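Chapter summary example.
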Amino acid sequence: MFTGLIEEIGEIKSIQKGTKSARITIKAGKILEGTKLGDSISTNGVCLTVTEFNKNSFSVDVMAETIRSSNLGKLKAGSYVNLERALRLGDRLGGHMVSGHIDGIGTIVDFNNEENATWVSIETTKEILKYIVHKGSITIDGISLTVAYVDENIFKVSIIPHTKGETTLVIKKIGNEVNLECDMMAKYVEKLLKYDEAPQEKKSISMDFLERNGFA
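The structure predicted for these 216 residues follows.
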């Protein structure tokens, strides 16, 4: 689990691409403090496992499904990524609960400055938008943000100066893709509602059933 509070911006050192998968090596510093093999690091919001590391970089293996459902396949050497170590028991939860399991992709369609804030407009699918609510939480490339506007086609977030300086979001360009993870509570609620609405299978207990199962 993660909080969506970015600890460091990393730089892609190299990418070894397979037919559908990839091995990515990322330059980093702070997030490597105390890191062990097998640790989870959120990379642009995707939970990835450290398979190799040294004092200034770490490597991860990215499977085909992750390439298909995230923007990691668009990265190249020199690209910047948001990094966060997994949440530890006892840490302050300053953002919101983030799983690192991407729901889909959004596309940046507009930037607009308003005094010290920057509004970012993101277009995505209706399948994802149905989970996004005004004033709710959304994770964009691993960043925990509050939804400031949403309609049937786009949603918007407003970025404060601190977030601008500590993440990659405002250095992106219109047309760039971002990884989106919706608030998991919305998905659990939807699942429970669908379960309650589903017709329950009715089973009758007969003498034949009791005899076959040794009860009579």
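To summarize the output: The domain at 8-85 is CATH 2.40.30.20 (Elongation Factor Tu (Ef-tu); domain 3).
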